[in-house]
């Protein structure tokens, strides 16, 4: 299961200052980015100069690329790869005509939008060495085009092959959908299902400070990092939940499903606003999902079995199968019959439940990783969970604008027949987020 992360396919190199850090045992909420207008003029000048040094090299033939980067940068990524990426950006999106600084993190990292002459907006994050202003970290996220409104978003999403679902809805005050496309169609949502594990923990009033350990036999495959931690390492329930949501950690997820109880989650799905809960039964652990997908025989037996018989299959056969990342299919396989299924309306209902609860622990977890760049000044709160797999991508946000209007934005895309153009989908969703930032519906 390839899960969507904050930094996507075009990430080049992590900032050098962060590269030497050891992951903490506790999930720490990331400090929010500062609005660009709160930094000093000197910091703005330094970051903008570095951004332009990159933007000017997005060309058919980038020159003197190494002059913009710290020498250590090219120990992390080959110069030829950087040059090729800059050429590709120019071919696909045009020349950069304007650079805007949207936010900063400390004095050394700036988040920018590069505006091109082909009307693309290319999100970029630049980290510099404070001693000389040379670039030590560079991230490009999927580009998106200016959209006239949500009707444009719907049209672009509808044009994709396969099955799609979209909902943008207000959650209070002037309640109701703003735009939708098959909002009640249950689709495979990948790791977005972890919202229901979080909802059950909240429903059961989980003791966030309780400490648990994870036996080696109960570890899952990545995404996440906890599968690599020593056996017997202690984790608080809060840490596991924060890792499950912010990093989509599969080992943390399975431990929490065990703690919450599979049957308890299933009984609560209707309470959480899921209108077709039978599509989620049995409520699989991620390791079970991997084992089913990794064996053609197991997958065939699973899809042919009645729902009640599948519980027996899990205990008697599935859980004894080997767990191997190499065996997991890399092409779409049984997308419509194996996994976790919910509609965009279902996902917005569970997000609204979190909003109404006003539970600071849960809302903080959802906001650790906003999924895609969000203007923190325009949208002070952005809670997110997404997921992806071969033939599957799903993204859902709970958003509060500066005018204190609450929205849910959710979309999923499934294609049983061919790999997804994930970057195109992500660009569409980035455009939708920009419309929510404008808060003009």
Please outline what is shown here.
The protein is an alpha+beta fold. The protein is built from 15 helices and 16 strands.
Characterize the biggest β-sheet.
7 strands, antiparallel
Overall CATH architecture of the largest domain: 3-Layer(aba) Sandwich
Which CATH C-level class of the largest domain is it? Alpha Beta
- Assign the CATH superfamily of the largest domain: DD-peptidase/beta-lactamase superfamily
Bin the helical content.
25-40%
* Beta strand %: 15-25%
Q: What integer is the average pLDDT?
A: 89
Spans with pLDDT under 50 lasting ≥5 residues?
1-32
Whole-Å distance between the termini?
Answer: 36 Å
- What coarse outline follows from CA principal-axis ratios? globular
Walk me through what this model shows.
- With 441 residues, this protein is an alpha+beta fold.
- It has two domains: 11-145, Nuclear Transport Factor 2, Chain: A (Roll); 147-441, Beta-lactamase (3-Layer(aba) Sandwich), CATH 3.40.710.
- Helix content is 34%, strand content 21%.
- It is built from 15 helices and 16 strands.
- It has helices at residues 16-19, 41-55, 73-76, 79-93, 150-158, 194-203, 237-246, 250-260, 262-268, 286-294, 296-304, 307-316, 344-357, 360-367, 422-438; strands spanning 11-13, 34-35, 96-105, 109-116, 120-128, 135-140, 144-145, 163-170, 176-181, 187-188, 211-213, 234-236, 341-342, 381-389, 392-400, 406-414.
- The strands form four sheets. Strands 1, 2, 3, 4, 5, 6 and 7 form a seven-stranded antiparallel β-sheet that branches.
- Strand 4 and strand 5 (120-128) form a beta hairpin.
- Helix 5 (150-158) runs antiparallel to helix 15 (422-438) and helix 7 (237-246) runs parallel beside helix 14 (360-367).
- The model is unreliable at 1-32 (pLDDT under 50).
